[in-house]
From TrEMBL:
ATP binds at G26, A27, G28, K29, T30, T31, R132. It is found in: Cytoplasm. The lineage of its organism: Bacteria, Pseudomonadati, Pseudomonadota, Betaproteobacteria, Burkholderiales. The keyword Cell membrane does not apply. CDD domains: SK. Monomer. InterPro entries: P-loop_NTPase, Shikimate/glucono_kinase, Shikimate_kinase/TSH1, Shikimate_kinase_CS. This is Shikimate kinase. Binds 1 Mg(2+) ion per subunit.
Length: 191
């Protein structure tokens, strides 16, 4: 259900509301978000890319210079801005749901899709990726397990819909998301 924060302030005249993808690193938010936007004919934004564009440096560089706390401040600022865009599909970063103010923005401003996968598959997908500074630890698999344990209740609680992405192909996941959104629209809800 869409919870409006100022009446229907974030619903455009054509009834479109933003679609937000949440979930762990490697769940497929960026990949599925891009495909979903293409199939809906919508603008695609990736929160990490938007942060990088505004800062002029990469996410790992932001972590190097400002630490996670600095990155999270920037993440909230950019989230506040981009969630106001109406006809957008927004892939968030895995940790964007942790700050309570971010949770409020996502809940109030759009449809939240949780892309869900287990820790083994998440690890397989991101193990060789050097662009995820949260995993620069001695035991990245244990880090994923711990982050998933902390974040799963938040993902579950924020989600309007949950889609399993750990088993099927990208195509299968896109089909499942399209079906959910079609059913959502058939119930008379804005998408
Ligand atoms: N079923 C699937 N759904 C989404 N991504 C998948 C799937 N299978 C494999 N992948 C791969 O997982 C990797 C991580 O995806 P990415 O979109 O970067 O995730 P996130 O943005 O959630 O961290 C990509 O290389 C993507 O191709
Ligand atoms: O889980 C996290 O805390 C993070 C996930 C990343 O995004 P993806 O989930 O797209 O990898 C990125 O925002 C940053 O490295 C922190
Ligand atoms: Mg991503």
């Amino acid at each position: 259900m869409l919870h409006s924060e100022q009446g229907d302030a974030h619903i455009s005249p054509s009834g479109q509301v933003p679609i937000f993808l949440i979930g762990m690193m490697g769940a497929g938010k960026t990949t599925i978000g891009r495909g979903l936007a293409r199939s809906l004919g919508r603008e695609f934004l990736d929160l990490d890319h938007e942060i990088e564009a505004r800062c002029g440096v990469s996410i790992p560089t932001i972590f190097d210079i400002e630490g996670e706390a600095g990155f999270r401040r920037r993440e909230t600022q950019v989230l506040e801005e981009v969630t106001l865009r109406r006809a957008v599909v927004l892939a968030t970063g895995g940790g964007a749901v942790v700050a309570p103010e971010n949770q409020a923005l996502l809940r109030a401003r759009g449809i939240v899709l949780y892309l869900k996968a287990g820790s083994d598959e998440l690890f397989r997908r991101v193990a060789k990726d050097k662009n995820r500074p949260m995993l620069l630890t001695a035991n990245p698999k244990a880090r994923i397990v711990e982050l998933l344990r902390q974040r799963e209740p938040i993902y579950e609680q924020l989600a309007d819909y949950t889609v399993e992405t750990g088993h099927g192909s990208i195509h299968t996941v896109l089909d499942a998301v399209a079906r959910l959104l079609k059913e959502h629209a058939q119930r008379g809800e804005n998408i």
